[in-house]
Amino acid sequence: MEFIWIFVAFVCGFVFRFLSLPPLIGFLCAGFILNFFGITPDPNLQLLADLGITLMLFTIGLKLNIKDLFRTEVWVGTGLSAFFWIVLFASFSMLYMTWGLAYFEVLDWKTATLLGFALSFSSTVCIVKVLEDSGEMKTRHGKLAIAILVMQDIIAVVFLALATGKIPSMLALGLPLLIFVRPLIDRLLNAAGHGELLPLTGFFLALGGYELFNLVDVKGDLGALIMGILLSSHVKSTELAKSLLGFKDLFLIGFFLSIGFITIPTLPMLAMAAFICLLLPIKYLLFFSLFNALKLRGRTSYLAGLVLSNFSEFGLIVVALSVKQGWLEKDWLVILAISVSLSFVFTSIAYRFAHRGYNLFKPYLVKFEREQRLPEDAYVKPGNASILVIGMGRVGKGSFEALSHAAGESVWGLDADSERVSQLQSDGKQVICGDAEDADLWERIDVTHIKLILLALPSIEDIDNICQQLVSAGYKGKIAAMARFEDEREHLLASGIHKVFNFYTEVGAGFAEESLQIID
User: Fold this and answer.
1) How far apart are CA 424 and CA 358, in angstroms?
2) What is the rounded radius of gyration, in angstroms, for the C-alpha atoms of the chain?
3) Cα(45)–Cα(510) distance, rounded to whole angstroms?
4) CA separation (Å) from 178 to 53, 158, 172, 231, 325?
5) Which of 322, 275, 337 is nearest to 107 (CA)?
6) How many Å apart are CA 68 and CA 261, to the nearest integer?
7) H-run or E-run covering 177
8) What span, in angstroms and rounded, lies between the C-alpha atoms of 239 and 62?
9) pLDDT reported for residue 82
10) What string of DSSP letters covers 102-154?
């Protein structure tokens, strides 16, 4: 039976990939198709889904700076967005009730507020997948969205404790002592090396954190997140996250399939779910307005608001609990499951065109910006740069150092990760923080003196977007980029990039060249 799941998921994912749409939409469809034909899941599917979510939260923690959670725009944005959304949804529900709309007619203020609370959360699974696929986890808007998701998870833990009456054990007071165990965990991670023991160590720590928190009656997923946060500053945190990436993505397919197995919807339920999803633009406008009021840039508000404009799998937990307590009719669980699925589709498609959309609507969006900006949103120009390296990861950093040795102070670096930039600046390197896909950034940089730009980025979609921004900014110099596969290399050359290096081929050629010098 497991082969049927894999076969249908593969076919649906491949079809949507062929249509240039995110495969996760195909996995959602696969779940509904399997359910429609009467194929029932066994516990293994739910186990895969749970493992995927646990690993995802653990890897989020590995990439999260705990200081981000205490920023005003994060905790105020989280609280006010939830409050205003609940009020708005409850008001709309009461209006629909007076119209005698199906399923709303049985609601009152309390149940409408509860539904609004369930729909106020944004999907961690969907958002992390979208941001990872677009390579924007470390951007300003990406980190803002992730921090808000973490704050929502904390609210979820509190709600579940209050709603179920399951109070954490007194032993939970000892959880902060984990910080004193961190040196031991660091040594364990160092000793794991770089092979197959490294991802196994990740599994051990993620599941160990889950079980430890679950043992003291605290939501286990929060334990996986906290364990990841403890290791976020470790030198191997990025390598550990990458070693778990394939496992996490594979297990999360189980999550998307499991949504479709909840029940087979009727046409009225589908119509009602679609009707609820019509409110998603209101959720976006709410986030966008709040972020602007909190002095974020229009682009950050636009992108963060767009990626957060969906419904969460946690809403299903809230409604399932409400149905069990007799507060809501069972049909609402089905309606919400469909609404969550449709919202995933909305986010996956809408965010694919987010950067082009910003360029199109920019004249209108910037009108809502506050004159006073947050310090993190201030632009720094790359001085006397004639060569600019975009992306200061391992490849970019190596290229930067080689070019600096040859061309001196005319070489500058640009990266969207503020923590990485701070570290490089403390090492005396000429690096500035900025998102190269940001049209506003290029409008404020004089590109006439830049002769060469190196794009040391893993995503060809990001490279395409940056090239479009450079053309719009009037850049006349040369562009070089890296590609991992030959088809990507051909695509980038066809798009107008002057030189594209095949990563693996160039590494092999460089290795051979250096080796020959030994016998000369």
Assistant:
1) 30
2) 24
3) 46
4) 22, 21, 11, 11, 35
5) 322
6) 37
7) none
8) 10
9) 92
10) TTTTT--HHHHHHHHHHHHS--HHHHHHHHHHTT-TTSHHHHHHHHHHHHHHH
pLDDT of residue 193: 84
The whole-angstrom separation of Cα 351 and Cα 145 is: 13
Beta bridge pairs of residue 478: 452
pLDDT of residue 514: 63
- pLDDT on residue 81: 93
The secondary structure of residue 499, as a DSSP letter, is: E
> Is it the case that residue 380 has pLDDT exceeding 80?
no
Cα angle for residues 60, 20, 57 (degrees, 5° grid): 10
| Residues linked to residue 413 through DSSP beta bridges, in sequence order | 389, 431
Of the candidates 54, 339, 353, the residue with the CA atom closest to the CA atom of residue 206: 54
Which tokens belong to 139?
């951007």
What residue ranges define each of the domains in the chain, with the CATH number in brackets?
2-368 (1.20.1530.20), 379-519 (3.40.50.720)
pLDDT number for residue 405: 84
Q: Which helix (H) or strand (E) holds 483?
A: strand 478-483
pTM across the whole model: 0.78
Which single residue is written with the structure tokens 């709303």? 104
DSSP letter for each residue of 421-475 = HHHHHHTT--EEE--TT-HHHHHTS-GGG--EEEE--S-HHHHHHHHHHHHHTT-
Contact status, residue 148 vs residue 78, Cβ threshold 8 Å: yes
In contact, 159 and 318? CB cutoff 8 Å: yes
* Residues facing 432 on adjacent strands: 414
pLDDT confidence of residue 128: 86
Matching residue, tokens 């050359």: 493
Task: Report the run of H or E that residue 29 belongs to, with start and end.
Answer: helix 23-36
Give the 3-state secondary structure of residue 495. Answer: coil
Q: Among residues 388, 126, 65, which one has the least CA distance to residue 255?
A: 126
- Strands of 385-469 (E only): list them: 387-390, 411-415, 431-433, 452-455
Q: pLDDT tens digit string along 124-168? A: 888 988 888 777 877 888 889 999 998 888 888 778 767 666 677
The residue length of the chain stands at 520
Q: How many CA atoms lie within 13 A of 428 on its CB side?
A: 4
Check: CB of residue 57 under 8 Å from CB of residue 224. yes
- CB-based contact 53:252 (threshold 8 Å): yes
Q: How many CB atoms lie within 10 A of CB 405?
A: 9
Summarised one tens digit per residue, pLDDT across range 253-311 is: 888 788 777 667 778 888 888 888 999 999 999 999 999 999 888 888 999 999 999 99
The most distant pair of C-alpha atoms in the chain lies apart, rounded to whole Å, by 88
Tokens linked to 138: 């470390």
Torsional sign, CA 389, 391, 395, 401? positive
pLDDT digits (tens, 9 = 90+) for 88-105: 998 888 887 787 777 777
